[in-house]
Amino acid sequence: MHTKINKELIVQQQQSITKLVHDARAPLNQISMQAELIKMMVEQNAPLDKIQQTAAKIIQNCQKCSEELSKISEQARK
Q1: What is the pLDDT of residues 27-58, one digit of tens each?
Q2: Structure-derived torsion over alpha carbons of residues 15, 18, 22, 25, reported in degrees to the nearest 10
Q3: What is the rounded distance in angstroms from the CA atom of residue 34 to the CA atom of residue 21?
């Protein structure tokens, strides 16, 4: 009985961690795309304010990613 419960708990924990990792990847993908966008904007001499707005989005997504990684860390301690 305990073995079955333990296996179920392990499966639930693995699923939870998998979801958290997936959630952390979303802002990383956004960071990558926004960095590529900045590169293109610089090459095309885009207005500085547009470049700054895109850089601000990178910072926001870094913060989101940090929050998601904290959730993973918390989950791993359980």
Answers
A1: 999 999 999 999 999 999 999 999 999 999 99
A2: 160
A3: 20
**Residue 44: both structure tokens together:** 């095309």
Write down the H helix ranges in the chain: 2-43, 48-77
75 exposed, middle or buried (CB, 10 Å; 0-12, 13-18, 19+)?
A: middle
| Report field, pTM of the whole predicted structure over 0.70 | yes
SS3 23: helix
Cα–Cα distance measured from residue 54 to residue 32, given in angstroms and rounded to the nearest whole number: 11
Structure tokens at 16: 């939870």
